[in-house]
Amino acid sequence: MSIRRREDIRNIAIIAHVDHGKTTLVDAILKQTGAFRDNQKVEERVLDSDPQERERGITIFAKNAGYNYKGRKVNIVDTPGHADFGGEVERILKMVDGALLLVDALEGPMPQTKFVLRRALEAGLKIIVVINKIDRPNARPLQVIDEVLDLFIHLGANEEQIDFPYLFASGKEGYAKLKLEDEGKDISPLLDMILDKIPAPEADIDAPFQMLVNSLDYSDYLGKIAIGRIMKGKVRAGDAIALVEKKGEEVSVQKAKVGKLFLFEKLGRVEVSEAMAGDIVALTGVEDAHIGSTLCHPDYPIALEPLAITEPTVSMFFSVNDSPFAGKEGKFVTSRHLRERLYKEVITNVALRVEDTESSDTFKVSGRGELHLSVLIETMRREGFELQVSRPEVILKRDENGKLLEPYEAVTIDVPQDYVGVVIEKMGKRKGDMKNMTSLEGGLTRLEFEIPTRGLLGFQSEFVMDTKGEGILTHVFKSYEPYKGEIQSRQSGALVSAETGEAVAYALAQLDDRGTFFIEPGTPVYEGMVVGESSRDFDLTVNVCKTKKLTNMRASGSDEALKITPPRKLTLEQSLEFINDDELVEVTPKSIRIRKKILDETTRVREAKRKKSAAEAEA
Fold first, then answer.
1. What's residue 66's pLDDT?
2. SS3 string of 142-195?
């Protein structure tokens, strides 16, 4: 046994709350360390390569990159900042020895900061705190340092962890400094601190090879690519290895052979002939590997401890599209296509669960939250799938005494003073308990709540309208706690089309007082399709295809231009928030529609069971 530290390498993760500047800081690090040519055109947030990440402005998938600095190789992993993608964070922390914790110099520690920091402290990682965005107006970096220290203490950090190194930075401007009064030149102070404070990985190079698969990629040319950190020993391209799967007490072993072997360099991978303990590698030739599999020496097939991933809290039913417009816009429309795609997603999306139901056309999909599931739906839509999805429901559990439990969220809301009253009122109606209220710079008030996850379903759009778009709401899963009784869902009814055809301007103008429409003239509609939100608390059936009767008589003023209120076009997330239990969202590559359910016998039985269990829980 020759355990030593590999001083030539460092493995770090970047963790933070959503939109605190992780990916922008990585841009600055890569630019300064020569990852790009002088004349290379580089997009902002270069690691956010997925189209949805760029559109939403958030990191969804963990990314690997690497740079060389002062003769040392540093592997850097950018992790998601949104709680719904916490599964990505949890497995990445297994690959690294330290983490940069980014905190916004104005907002301070937020719910997701607490979540990722708790996970990092549990993993025993060395933390460097980076107070980012110090160039923001009203930034308060020194106060935020105190708040971060309080958070470390609150999370039970030990004395060594509490004595964390910190510095101040602006990822956007590309500089870091140890003291606020120092001049901000470049990112070098951060690069030096990483080498100085993050421990080099322990490496037993002479032991038999052992590696945990933390991530998977796929290439049309190379097949499945397993990514992870080598815990022990060495591996070479062409080596025979064992693939070990551990499920509970059962252990299965398969033979495999390493195809190509890669290290991470700059933004890509470089092929190498050999890698050793401490390296983060990507390798091919392991088609049957899953996240959590162990790759090891064939003579020593010992499984590493599998990843502990937090369980899903929200589920939805995905089913084949059976609307009157089914099959007109999608490429993949059958239950076989849907099933294959969902079970393929489970391989790489570790926080997702897929189950078969009594119906061969319907699958129960469970995830961390609405956003987690809506990203999957949007991805499938862009790939050419047609499907329909039900309203999100929380996953209930029972404790050892048979008491019903439901998931709760810790919510932080920053709003202007004018909207505090309406936010507290709405959260109260949704069974939210206010835990704290503090004043911030710039006339904002921070409200902290604990609320059942059910209370947040469908709340985002309402919150944006109530606060005129000026409020910021973030939340993170807290724990399972006793069921809190019935929570009111949407108060208004729906406007439902009575006919199949095309919406006509004349009909929409005549029905303008019935509610708010989601469609415009010329939109194809079918019987049972939800075309708007009713101004009443019950559904209204309307004929949006009705045309004006033509006569050869003309009258002054009767042929004036029609005045139609602009429609409220719903996005995928807004549609999922809007629907009630008796409605579905129909998703195709070109359209997002809402429709009333056509209940077959299987669905009726399922709905009856669900209502019965809800009534029992209430009792």
1. 82
2. HHHHHHHHHHHHHCCCCHHHHCCCEEEEECCCCEEECCCCCCCCCCHHHHHHHH
CB 98 within 8 A of CB 85: no
- Of the pLDDT bands very low, low, confident and very high (cuts 50, 70, 90), residue 554 is low
Which residues partner with 477 through β-bridges?
Answer: 409
- Interhelix angle 188-197/22-32, nearest 10 degrees: 100
d(C-alpha 511, C-alpha 524), whole Å: 17
pTM of the model: 0.74
| The pLDDT of residue 595 | 92
Among 66-80, 330-344, 474-488, top mean pLDDT goes to 330-344
Residues 6+ apart with CB under 8 A from 168: 105, 130, 131, 134, 141, 176, 177, 178, 179, 180
Longest C-alpha distance within the chain, in Å?
A: 101
**Looking at 82-96, 211-225, 279-293, 312-326, which range is the least confident one?**
82-96
- d(CA 298, CA 165) in angstroms, rounded, equals 42
How far apart (Å, rounded) are the C-alpha atoms in residues 490 and 580?
7
Q: CA-CA distance, 190 to 196, in Å (whole number)?
A: 10
Taking each helix axis from N to C end, the angle separating 420-429 and 459-466, rounded to the nearest 10 degrees, works out to 160
Q: Which of 328, 325, 322, 333 is nearest to 501 (CA)?
A: 325
Residue type, 99: A
Q: How far apart are CA 23 and CA 350, in angstroms?
A: 22
Write the CATH number of the domain with boundaries 205-296: 2.40.30.10
Residues 539 and 494: beta-carbon distance below 8 Å: yes
Query: Cβ atoms within 10 A of the Cβ of 204, count?
Result: 17
Helix (H) or strand (E) holding 283: strand 280-284
Query: pLDDT tens, 259-304?
Result: 888 888 877 788 888 888 888 888 888 888 877 788 888 888 888 7
141-154 helix and 111-122 helix, angle to the nearest 10 degrees:
50
Would you say 47 and 23 are in contact if contact means Cβ atoms under 8 Å apart? yes
Q: What is the pLDDT of residue 53?
A: 44
SS3 6: coil
Return all residues near 606 (Cβ < 8 A) that are at least 6 apart: 357, 358
User: In sequence order, what are the residues at sequence separation of 6 or more whose Cβ sits closer than 8 angstroms to the Cβ of residue 418?
Assistant: none
Token reading at 166: 């910190």
Instruction: Tell me which H or E stretch contains 478.
Output: strand 472-482
pLDDT tens, 520-550? 999 999 999 999 999 888 889 999 888 877 6
Under CATH, which number does the domain 314-396+600-618 receive?
A: 3.30.70.870
314-319 vs 362-367, strand pairing mode: antiparallel
C-alpha 482/C-alpha 405 separation (Å) is: 4
Residue-wise pLDDT for 426-482, tens only, equals 888 888 899 888 887 777 888 889 999 888 887 877 888 888 878 878 777 788 888
**C-alpha count within 13 angstroms, C-beta hemisphere, residue 37:** 3
Pick among 2.40.50.250, 2.30.130.10, 3.40.50.300, 1.20.1090.10: CATH of 494-549+560-579: 2.40.50.250
pLDDT value for 88: 56
Domain locations along the chain: 3-201, 205-296, 314-396+600-618, 397-482, 494-549+560-579
Tokens representing 195?
């080498």
Whether the predicted pLDDT of 364 surpasses 90: yes
592, 575 in Cβ contact below 8 A? yes
